[in-house]
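Following up on my earlier message about hypoxanthine. Here are the inputs again, as you asked, copied directly from the submission form:
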Amino acid sequence: MYAIIGGSGLAKLSALGNTRRQVMRTPYGEPSGALTFGELAGREVVFLARHGYGHTIAPHEINYRANIWALKELKVDGVFAVASVGGVRADFGPGTLVVPDQIIDYSHSRKGTFYEGDGAPVTHIDFTWPYSQRIRKMLLAAAARCGEAVADGGVYACTQGPRLETAAEIERIARDGGDLVGMTGMPEASLAREAGLDYATFAVVVNHAAGRGDSRCAIRLEDLETVLRETIVRAVAVIEAALGETR
Ligand code: HPA
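Thanks, got it. Here's what our run produced:
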Protein backbone atom coordinates (compact mmCIF):
# COMPACT_ATOMS: atom_id res chain seq x y z
CA MET A 1 0.00 0.00 0.00
CA TYR A 2 1.32 3.42 -0.98
CA ALA A 3 0.62 6.68 0.84
CA ILE A 4 -0.26 10.05 -0.61
CA ILE A 5 0.22 13.17 1.46
CA GLY A 6 -1.88 15.96 0.03
CA GLY A 7 -0.91 19.59 0.43
CA SER A 8 -2.73 22.81 -0.40
CA GLY A 9 -5.40 22.14 -3.00
CA LEU A 10 -5.42 18.44 -2.20
CA ALA A 11 -7.21 18.13 1.13
CA LYS A 12 -9.51 15.52 -0.30
CA LEU A 13 -8.72 12.92 -2.90
CA SER A 14 -12.03 12.69 -4.72
CA ALA A 15 -10.63 10.08 -7.13
CA LEU A 16 -10.36 7.69 -4.18
CA GLY A 17 -12.96 4.92 -4.23
CA ASN A 18 -14.30 2.71 -1.42
CA THR A 19 -13.00 4.92 1.34
CA ARG A 20 -12.85 4.34 5.06
CA ARG A 21 -11.25 6.53 7.69
CA GLN A 22 -9.12 5.62 10.65
CA VAL A 23 -8.09 7.89 13.49
CA MET A 24 -4.54 7.10 14.58
CA ARG A 25 -2.56 8.18 17.61
CA THR A 26 1.20 8.16 17.79
CA PRO A 27 3.79 8.72 20.53
CA TYR A 28 4.13 12.20 19.01
CA GLY A 29 0.46 13.12 19.11
CA GLU A 30 -2.19 13.06 16.45
CA PRO A 31 -1.60 13.29 12.70
CA SER A 32 -3.15 16.16 10.74
CA GLY A 33 -6.37 14.17 10.43
CA ALA A 34 -7.80 10.71 10.16
CA LEU A 35 -6.05 8.49 7.64
CA THR A 36 -8.27 7.81 4.63
CA PHE A 37 -7.95 4.39 3.03
CA GLY A 38 -9.31 3.78 -0.42
CA GLU A 39 -8.58 2.61 -3.93
CA LEU A 40 -6.79 4.48 -6.67
CA ALA A 41 -6.01 2.81 -10.00
CA GLY A 42 -7.21 -0.44 -8.43
CA ARG A 43 -4.59 -0.24 -5.68
CA GLU A 44 -5.14 0.31 -1.99
CA VAL A 45 -3.74 3.65 -0.90
CA VAL A 46 -3.81 5.70 2.25
CA PHE A 47 -4.31 9.43 2.02
CA LEU A 48 -3.47 12.10 4.56
CA ALA A 49 -4.21 15.82 4.23
CA ARG A 50 -1.10 17.58 5.52
CA HIS A 51 -2.97 20.76 6.51
CA GLY A 52 -5.99 18.87 7.85
CA TYR A 53 -9.15 18.12 5.91
CA GLY A 54 -10.44 21.65 6.39
CA HIS A 55 -7.02 23.19 5.63
CA THR A 56 -6.72 24.55 9.16
CA ILE A 57 -3.12 23.65 10.06
CA ALA A 58 -0.41 26.13 9.01
CA PRO A 59 2.93 24.82 7.70
CA HIS A 60 4.83 25.58 10.93
CA GLU A 61 2.09 23.98 13.04
CA ILE A 62 1.88 20.65 11.25
CA ASN A 63 2.77 17.67 13.41
CA TYR A 64 5.18 16.20 10.86
CA ARG A 65 6.37 13.56 13.29
CA ALA A 66 2.88 12.23 13.95
CA ASN A 67 2.09 12.19 10.23
CA ILE A 68 5.20 10.23 9.29
CA TRP A 69 4.99 7.95 12.33
CA ALA A 70 1.44 6.97 11.38
CA LEU A 71 2.59 6.04 7.85
CA LYS A 72 5.50 4.08 9.29
CA GLU A 73 3.11 2.16 11.54
CA LEU A 74 1.02 1.33 8.50
CA LYS A 75 4.18 -0.02 6.85
CA VAL A 76 3.45 1.80 3.60
CA ASP A 77 5.50 0.85 0.54
CA GLY A 78 6.30 4.47 -0.26
CA VAL A 79 5.06 8.02 0.03
CA PHE A 80 4.01 10.45 -2.71
CA ALA A 81 4.12 13.88 -1.09
CA VAL A 82 2.26 16.48 -3.11
CA ALA A 83 3.27 20.06 -2.34
CA SER A 84 2.39 23.41 -3.84
CA VAL A 85 5.36 25.69 -4.34
CA GLY A 86 6.51 28.97 -5.80
CA GLY A 87 8.82 28.87 -8.81
CA VAL A 88 12.21 30.51 -8.28
CA ARG A 89 13.77 29.39 -11.55
CA ALA A 90 12.43 31.39 -14.49
CA ASP A 91 11.28 28.30 -16.38
CA PHE A 92 9.32 27.01 -13.39
CA GLY A 93 6.22 29.10 -13.98
CA PRO A 94 2.72 28.49 -12.66
CA GLY A 95 1.39 25.12 -13.77
CA THR A 96 4.79 23.42 -13.87
CA LEU A 97 5.08 19.98 -12.26
CA VAL A 98 8.46 19.12 -10.75
CA VAL A 99 9.96 16.06 -9.09
CA PRO A 100 12.74 17.73 -7.08
CA ASP A 101 15.95 15.93 -6.21
CA GLN A 102 17.46 18.20 -3.56
CA ILE A 103 16.47 20.28 -0.56
CA ILE A 104 17.76 23.36 1.22
CA ASP A 105 16.07 23.82 4.58
CA TYR A 106 15.50 27.36 5.84
CA SER A 107 12.77 26.37 8.25
CA HIS A 108 13.42 26.48 11.97
CA SER A 109 11.95 25.64 15.36
CA ARG A 110 10.10 22.59 14.04
CA LYS A 111 10.22 19.23 15.76
CA GLY A 112 12.39 17.54 13.19
CA THR A 113 13.62 14.24 14.55
CA PHE A 114 12.44 11.04 16.18
CA TYR A 115 15.85 10.73 17.84
CA GLU A 116 15.50 12.95 20.88
CA GLY A 117 14.39 12.70 24.46
CA ASP A 118 15.15 10.26 27.22
CA GLY A 119 16.96 7.15 26.07
CA ALA A 120 16.91 8.03 22.39
CA PRO A 121 20.23 7.13 20.78
CA VAL A 122 22.18 9.90 19.04
CA THR A 123 21.54 9.03 15.41
CA HIS A 124 22.61 10.69 12.17
CA ILE A 125 20.85 9.67 8.99
CA ASP A 126 22.43 9.98 5.58
CA PHE A 127 20.53 12.67 3.67
CA THR A 128 22.88 13.35 0.77
CA TRP A 129 20.07 12.57 -1.64
CA PRO A 130 16.95 13.41 0.33
CA TYR A 131 14.35 11.78 -1.89
CA SER A 132 13.77 8.17 -2.83
CA GLN A 133 15.06 7.60 -6.32
CA ARG A 134 12.61 4.71 -6.70
CA ILE A 135 9.55 6.88 -6.01
CA ARG A 136 10.96 9.73 -8.12
CA LYS A 137 11.39 7.34 -11.05
CA MET A 138 7.86 5.99 -10.58
CA LEU A 139 6.54 9.54 -10.95
CA LEU A 140 8.75 10.45 -13.91
CA ALA A 141 8.01 7.23 -15.78
CA ALA A 142 4.28 7.62 -15.17
CA ALA A 143 4.41 11.23 -16.35
CA ALA A 144 6.13 10.13 -19.56
CA ARG A 145 3.43 7.50 -20.13
CA CYS A 146 0.72 10.12 -19.56
CA GLY A 147 2.42 12.56 -21.96
CA GLU A 148 2.66 14.99 -19.05
CA ALA A 149 5.74 17.24 -19.03
CA VAL A 150 7.31 16.96 -15.59
CA ALA A 151 10.68 18.49 -14.71
CA ASP A 152 13.19 15.93 -13.48
CA GLY A 153 15.15 17.46 -10.61
CA GLY A 154 15.31 20.77 -8.83
CA VAL A 155 16.26 22.14 -5.46
CA TYR A 156 13.35 22.56 -3.08
CA ALA A 157 13.92 25.42 -0.64
CA CYS A 158 11.82 25.10 2.50
CA THR A 159 10.96 28.35 4.25
CA GLN A 160 9.34 28.75 7.63
CA GLY A 161 6.18 30.59 6.62
CA PRO A 162 3.39 31.13 7.06
CA ARG A 163 4.18 34.44 5.40
CA LEU A 164 5.48 34.39 1.87
CA GLU A 165 9.07 35.46 1.22
CA THR A 166 10.51 38.87 0.46
CA ALA A 167 12.02 39.49 -2.97
CA ALA A 168 15.48 39.63 -1.35
CA GLU A 169 14.93 36.29 0.35
CA ILE A 170 14.02 34.76 -3.00
CA GLU A 171 17.15 36.34 -4.54
CA ARG A 172 19.19 34.70 -1.82
CA ILE A 173 17.47 31.36 -2.33
CA ALA A 174 18.22 31.62 -6.06
CA ARG A 175 21.90 32.41 -5.30
CA ASP A 176 21.98 29.41 -2.98
CA GLY A 177 20.78 27.24 -5.85
CA GLY A 178 17.11 26.94 -4.92
CA ASP A 179 14.69 26.31 -7.79
CA LEU A 180 11.40 26.02 -5.90
CA VAL A 181 10.15 27.42 -2.65
CA GLY A 182 7.62 25.88 -0.30
CA MET A 183 6.90 25.70 3.40
CA THR A 184 6.20 22.04 4.12
CA GLY A 185 8.97 19.98 2.54
CA MET A 186 10.93 19.84 5.77
CA PRO A 187 11.17 18.15 8.19
CA GLU A 188 8.71 15.85 6.42
CA ALA A 189 11.36 14.44 4.07
CA SER A 190 14.02 13.89 6.73
CA LEU A 191 11.54 12.29 9.13
CA ALA A 192 10.52 9.93 6.34
CA ARG A 193 14.20 9.03 5.92
CA GLU A 194 14.55 8.50 9.68
CA ALA A 195 11.48 6.27 9.57
CA GLY A 196 12.95 4.29 6.68
CA LEU A 197 10.16 5.27 4.30
CA ASP A 198 10.68 5.72 0.57
CA TYR A 199 9.49 9.27 0.04
CA ALA A 200 9.46 11.75 -2.83
CA THR A 201 7.89 15.14 -3.33
CA PHE A 202 5.73 15.95 -6.32
CA ALA A 203 5.80 19.73 -6.53
CA VAL A 204 3.08 21.81 -8.15
CA VAL A 205 4.21 25.33 -9.04
CA VAL A 206 1.33 27.72 -8.38
CA ASN A 207 3.07 31.09 -8.61
CA HIS A 208 6.30 32.81 -9.52
CA ALA A 209 8.18 33.32 -6.27
CA ALA A 210 8.22 36.81 -4.75
CA GLY A 211 9.86 39.42 -6.94
CA ARG A 212 9.99 37.17 -10.02
CA GLY A 213 7.94 37.09 -13.19
CA ASP A 214 4.41 38.33 -12.64
CA SER A 215 5.06 38.32 -8.87
CA ARG A 216 7.50 41.22 -9.30
CA CYS A 217 5.31 43.62 -7.31
CA ALA A 218 3.25 41.15 -5.27
CA ILE A 219 2.03 37.58 -5.25
CA ARG A 220 -1.63 37.69 -6.26
CA LEU A 221 -3.01 35.12 -3.86
CA GLU A 222 -6.40 35.16 -5.56
CA ASP A 223 -4.79 33.76 -8.74
CA LEU A 224 -3.25 30.79 -6.98
CA GLU A 225 -6.48 28.87 -6.41
CA THR A 226 -7.24 28.45 -10.10
CA VAL A 227 -3.73 27.32 -11.05
CA LEU A 228 -3.67 25.00 -8.07
CA ARG A 229 -7.01 23.40 -8.92
CA GLU A 230 -6.02 22.79 -12.54
CA THR A 231 -2.52 21.56 -11.85
CA ILE A 232 -3.40 19.27 -8.95
CA VAL A 233 -5.69 17.30 -11.27
CA ARG A 234 -2.70 16.62 -13.54
CA ALA A 235 -0.52 15.64 -10.57
CA VAL A 236 -3.13 13.18 -9.29
CA ALA A 237 -3.44 11.65 -12.77
CA VAL A 238 0.32 11.04 -12.82
CA ILE A 239 0.25 9.44 -9.35
CA GLU A 240 -2.67 7.29 -10.48
CA ALA A 241 -0.64 6.14 -13.48
CA ALA A 242 2.34 5.44 -11.22
CA LEU A 243 0.19 3.29 -8.93
CA GLY A 244 -1.35 1.51 -11.89
CA GLU A 245 2.09 0.15 -12.79
CA THR A 246 2.66 -1.40 -9.35
CA ARG A 247 0.37 -4.35 -10.04
N1 HPA B 1 6.57 30.53 -1.25
C1 HPA B 1 6.47 29.59 -0.29
N2 HPA B 1 5.56 28.62 -0.32
C2 HPA B 1 4.71 28.59 -1.37
C3 HPA B 1 4.78 29.54 -2.39
C4 HPA B 1 5.76 30.56 -2.33
O1 HPA B 1 5.87 31.43 -3.22
N3 HPA B 1 3.78 29.23 -3.28
C5 HPA B 1 3.17 28.11 -2.80
N4 HPA B 1 3.73 27.73 -1.63
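One observation from looking it over: The mean pLDDT is 95. Hope that helps, and feel free to reply on this thread.
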